[in-house]
From TrEMBL:
UniProt superkingdom: Eukaryota
Full protein name: F-box domain-containing protein
Coiled-coil regions listed in the entry: none
PANTHER family per UniProt: DUF38 DOMAIN-CONTAINING PROTEIN-RELATED, F-BOX A PROTEIN
Amino acid sequence: MFLELRTSGHRDGHIERVLRKKRNSQTVVKYVKSEATIDFVQDIAPSEPTTAPEEPLEPPQTHFWWFAPSDYTTTIMNMPDVAVARILEYLDFKEIFTLRKVNHGFRGFIDHSYPSLNLTNLHISATPQRIIMVYNLTTHVEYQLDRYGCIVIQDAKKTFVEGSSFLETFLEDLEYVLSRQKGILEALQLEWRTQSLILTPWDEQVNSIFNAFQQFLGARKKPLRVQKLLINAYTQHHVIALLRHFDPKFTKEIQIFVTCLDAREEVFELSELVELESHWNNLEQVVMRRKISQNDFHYFTKIREVSVIVQEVSLGSLVFLKETLTLSPTFRKFTLEIKCFRLPRRSLLDLYGPPNVEENERRSFYFRIPDDSMLLKMSIDPFESVLSFFRIERAELPKFAYVQN
């Protein structure tokens, strides 16, 4: 039974009295807007018969649509592209690199949606059986030779890549890194190792890596910004293949090392390398652990710090270095490691007089630098077969040391 009251002839207080009188019964209040009335509908008692049964009201919703059962499981592979791209923005390089190993489709999506990297260091170490890439000195990715494909190890987790050699898998990742790198690399190090003195097969593999490097760098819209290049180079062409794609305003240091056990005893040619004048003239430090010709000394006299290896050095080359470095405004240190140390002592005494003998048994000569308060120091260590030139302050001059013009 329903009781319907019209408020057009009653006060609101009457409605409140009816509500208090029936407070123990289940009450549903419904306000129906009309032009002059508001209907009040009350369920008198559940036990009384009703002449107009009302359909039960639906209980209030206690769950939302995302808790509802689904016919499929949501994974990152079936999420909308916009959502996945948004997630990728919160991942660092290490996590992105791991996700690229999921499958080819997801790798393509990441490469398209994650356009830039800002690595600070990249170190590549390769042998005939494996290649290791180290990112920012902390993230290690290893590519191992496998009979049926390639094994990739990252964070102690192994992933098998079927149908792709370890060199192919490595080059795919290398292309991704070089094409996405936007920041300045403080150091790029390339290291090739082998335990064999027979290098022919390994030479071909290393050459293929250098060719890929040159291809990937050449495809970039802007030159790679690298401050320091450390490289085990067979020939000057290996250095040129990289250096010509670097921004010369940023490259300040080059270190070139031997490549294997035979130490590559042939002389490392520099003629084509120094033709990259915009790169070479901006260098501040050069370390050559490969032998160079003493006829190439003049290539280094404008560089701030130099360390090179030569088979031998003549007295004429020594005089050239002394005179040239004395006039160089940029020079600070020049070190020669001499494989065959044959500087005649008598000739040095005749040329420069008696040396100053230091505590470490080194013999040193001091020379004035025209129009400068600093001095040029020439130091000879016969036991280490090292000859060095330094630009020093006058305060560093030992007592009783003789200074020549």
